[in-house]
Every structure is written in C-alpha cells, then in structure tokens.
Design brief:
By secondary structure, this protein is of the alpha/beta class. Helix content is 31%, strand content 21%. Helix 1 packs across helix 2 and helix 10 packs across helix 11.
C-alpha cells in the first residue's frame, strides 16, 4: 500500500540495484566498460519442485544487462547457495587477474514479497522473458542432500537445520529451555542492528532475547527448535549489486582511491550430506574456510574490525564463530546488516547485501579489515572473503587443498532401510501454520552396528509424535522399521 510500491519483478529489482552500483562506482557514461555480468539464482529457480507463478527469464543475467543498456561479452548465472555471492567475487577477481575481464557487475535480488502479494490479491503479472544470447547457466543443482533424507521428511531448510541444531544441543548437554535462550541471546544483537538499518525488512523494530522465543502471535513454531523469529525471513523485496574492476581500469576512469575496497584473502570449503557427517551438529568446512581466508590475508582474528556471518538459523552462526574462537558477544558484533531473520533473507543473494554494506563500512574506516562468512545449503559449503581499503597485491587461489581436507575426513556408515533397536542422536519436528505438530524426524544409531539411520513418526503415531514435542528425545531408545516411505520409529 506504499505510494512508491511498483511490484517489480526479480529481474527489475535486481537491475535497480545494478544501476545503483554502477552509479556508486562513478561509471556514469562509462558503464559500457562492464564486460561481464554475474547474477545469483532467485529462490523460485533454486529447486525443481518450485514454480514460477508469473514466469521467469530464461537468461537472468542478460535480462538484467538489457535493462541497464549493457552489452556484455560474458554472462554468468550462478548455481544455488548462499555462498555464491562471495564465490562470484572470487571468480570476478580471478577473471580480471587472468585478463578475461576488466570490469564485472555482480547482482542478485528477490521479489518474493511481491510474488506472494500478487497471488493473494489474484493479480496477474507476466515476468517471462526470452533472450537468445549466450549464458553460462550453472543450473539449479542441489547436491547437498540425498534421496534418503528427502524420503525421511527432511524437505525444508528449517527441518535440516533443526536436526543439526538439536544434535549440537544434545552433544553439549543442554536442555531445550537453556538452548532456546542461548539462540535468542545470539540473535538479539542481530535484531538490534537491523532495527537501525533503514534497508532492513525489520527496520525500526528490535527484539530482546526473551521476545525472540516468546510464544506469542506472529512467532509460531516452524520446526523444532525454531520459532519464526529465529528463522530467515525470505518474504522480502531486496536486491544488491557490486562492481569489481581492475586497478588499472579504476585509474583510467579516475575512480577515487577512497571508493576502492580490495579482496585481501578468500577461501571456500564444502561438506558431505548431513546424514554422512560424523557429527550432525558440526560442519568443519566453515572453520577451515575462515582460517584459510585469514591465513591468505595475512591476518588473525584480532585484526578483523567488522564481521558478517550468514545467519539463516542460529547454528549457521555458532558453527562458524565457535570454530575460530569468536565469542557470541564479541564487542565488534557479528553482522553489519542485521542478519537474515531481521534484515531479510533474499534467497541466495543475502551475502551480496552484506558485501555491499561492508564496502560502505570499510570506506568509512580506512585500513580496517572486514570479514564476510557466506553459508550455502545445509551447512554444506562455506565461502569467506576478507576486505580492506588498503591495496595489496592480488593473489589468485583455488580451494583444492580445502576440498581435499574435507574429502579425507571420515564419513559414517548409513543404512537406508533400518530395522531393530537404536538410540536417538538428534530430532526435529515439523509444525503446521496453526502450531500443531505434523511429523517428527530423528537421526539415530543402530545399537547392533552403530550405523546411522533416519526415521519419522507422523500424526498417526499419536504418542510418539507427542513425546517428540513435549519431551527431549535425545539419547532415548527407539524401535525402527522400514515403511512405505522411509523408516518409522516408536520409543521403546
């Protein structure tokens, strides 16, 4: 109902951010110097089961370029993952270093709020575009989950993350109430930052830790252990853009040195699917990438002035910060935007906003360093970049050493069809919009072999589902048996 509401499509809102980025870089009439466009993938194009209610572009980066009047040599359409903005920056820098590009526009955006609004109002729109020009389309490939996980009911991010969060809690010997307060105390400072950020979806509204976990209207249970206020807010209209160029071109265009920010170090690492990880509550790839980026940047944790850790769920932050010994209440803060539940979670492009904000912060703090930690999948992959306004010689790095380190790590034995007695190592519960439990999913170990299994219990199980909601299943014995879809379990 705002006077300025335009119901922009994902392409249109992303192009708006691209135009602002070009203007901020001072390109003006020199915007034709951009020879490469890279874009993230919108949410609706991130999984085969999702639909496009109003159609889509078949060539998203060139659709953005078309609106900006850019005729680029190369168009890159990234794959799925919240780590992709940082990885695109890495790739852009490498392309420039190797002489494949001189100036790159990176952009991403979402119009999920508009999409849902138009559908609720019954308003038709046509967002379809067809551009027959070359594009490096890397596809909506989700390779971070298995068929067994899907069959077992792990079908949404809150359920995957809920299972991991509870595994972490159980391993630390904490009660549900203790953990809820711990999560809330971690995220309350994020909400405070967002309340002071005019670009945030939650601008002007801060939450205390107790408010974040209170059972009140507007804070329904989504998946155990998460109420709505601890979950990424994806119903937003948000976009962001960056310009990456060679120092030589920046000199040629007389771009002020005060406007320039440099990539000092980067690293990325990935994980196997969660059902194969030795500890479901820990993803070592984040710590590996964080330490690797700092090593490449020639700095330590004490040398970083600003941080932004991807914060779709509390464990995405705690898994990363605890790996490098960064306290949750570190006075430097853990976000520059306000985080995904409060600033907004525009799908795969959130960290583009963190990068844009970090550039602005570092321009205002010459010589300081800022760190971006970008998480993808289900703690499946992590990309890190360290930035500063101080120029340094660029170093091109691949991440083979980190991939090899993760591949060398042990994986657990997993049984798809499990039968016998087992012990619960983690659980989660899916809730409907009215707050009633739909079904529970557990990860457990068979007592006979120690192999891991997944199993579920639905509403038809009665007491089993109720017990998962009202008590802590961690460490309890269960009887598991194969069902028509996945395994079923009951408490012994």
């Amino acid at each position: 109902d705002d006077a300025g509401y335009e119901a922009l499509s994902p392409v249109a809102i992303t192009a708006r951010a691209g135009a602002l980025a070009l203007a901020d870089a001072g390109l003006g009439q020199a915007s034709g110097r951009i020879d490469t466009i890279m874009t993230t993938r919108i949410f609706e194009d991130s999984a085969p089961v999702l639909q496009f209610p109003f159609g889509r572009s078949n060539n998203f980066p060139r659709s953005v370029g078309k609106r900006l009047g850019l005729d680029v040599d190369t168009a890159i359409w990234a794959t799925v993952g919240g780590d992709t903005p940082q990885k695109l920056v890495n790739e852009a820098c490498d392309r420039i270093w190797h002489g494949l590009s001189r100036a790159v526009l990176i952009a991403g955006g979402e119009a999920l709020s508009t999409s849902k609004y138009l559908q609720r109002q019954g308003i038709e729109a046509d967002w379809s575009e067809s551009i027959d020009e070359p594009v490096d389309d890397r596809g909506a490939i989700i390779d971070q989950l298995t068929d067994d996980e899907i069959v077992s009911g792990l079908i949404t991010p809150p359920l995957f993350y809920g299972l991991m969060e509870n595994a972490r809690r159980i391993a630390m010997g904490m009660s549900r109430d203790q953990w809820a307060l711990r999560m809330a105390e971690l995220f309350a400072p994020f909400a405070q930052v967002a309340s002071e950020n005019p670009l945030a979806a939650q601008a002007g509204r801060a939450f205390t830790a107790p408010e974040l976990i209170a059972s009140v209207p507007g804070n329904r249970r989504v998946a155990d252990p998460y109420p709505q206020r601890l979950v990424a807010r994806d119903q937003v209209n948000q976009s962001a853009g960056l310009v990456v160029m060679s120092s030589a071109l920046a000199d040629e265009l007389a771009i002020p040195s005060a406007a320039r920010v440099y990539l000092h170090g980067q690293a990325a690492a990935g994980e196997p699917p969660i059902s194969l990880r030795p500890d479901i509550g820990v993803a070592p790839s984040a710590g590996l990438a964080l330490e690797g980026a700092m090593d490449r940047a020639g700095c330590g944790l004490e040398d970083i002035a600003l941080f932004d850790f991807y914060s779709c769920f509390p464990i995405a932050v705690s898994n990363a910060t605890e790996a490098i010994g960064l306290a949750p209440d570190d006075p430097r803060g853990l976000t520059v935007t306000g985080g995904l539940p409060y600033f907004g979670g525009p799908g795969n492009s959130y960290s583009m906003h963190a990068l844009a904000e970090m550039v602005m912060r570092l321009r205002a703090a010459p010589g300081k360093r800022g760190l971006i930690g970008a998480n993808g999948g289900f703690l499946s992959k992590y990309a890190v970049g360290i930035y500063s306004s101080t120029p340094v010689p660029y170093q091109s790095h691949d991440n083979v050493e980190f991939d090899e380190a993760m591949l060398a790590a042990p994986q657990v034995e997993f049984v798809a069809q499990a039968e016998g007695q087992g012990v619960v190592e983690a659980h989660t519960v899916a809730f409907d919009r009215e707050g009633a439990g739909k079904y529970a999913v557990i990860s457990g170990r068979l007592e006979a072999s120690g192999a891991r299994f997944l199993a579920q219990a639905g509403r038809e199980s009665g007491a089993t589902l109720d017990a998962c909601i009202s008590t802590d299943p961690g460490g309890r014995q269960v009887q598991v048996s194969p069902g028509e879809r996945g395994n079923n379990f009951v408490f012994v």
